[in-house]
Amino acid sequence: MIFRMSEHTTSLLNEFGTSLRAMRRARNFSQEELGQITGLDRTYISGLERGMRNPTLKVIALLAACMGTTASQLLDGITIKNDKDY
Rounded to 5 degrees, what angle do the CA atoms 74, 16, 30 make? Predict the structure, then answer.
């Protein structure tokens, strides 16, 4: 099976953004504070949370580590519903 990027990727990015926002808020970080800790710009974090940016694996690992968790916990619950998600 070949997976291709499509408009359905948006749902996957939105799920990631929702997870990131929930984890950030649970740790009482503002976007600005998380940006300072990670070295990422606040507007980039905002874009991730809104599903507008597609993070690399390196960024996912960095965000997780700076929030005291693992990448797998940050991605927990994010699922590929079908091949149209790609």
Answer: 75
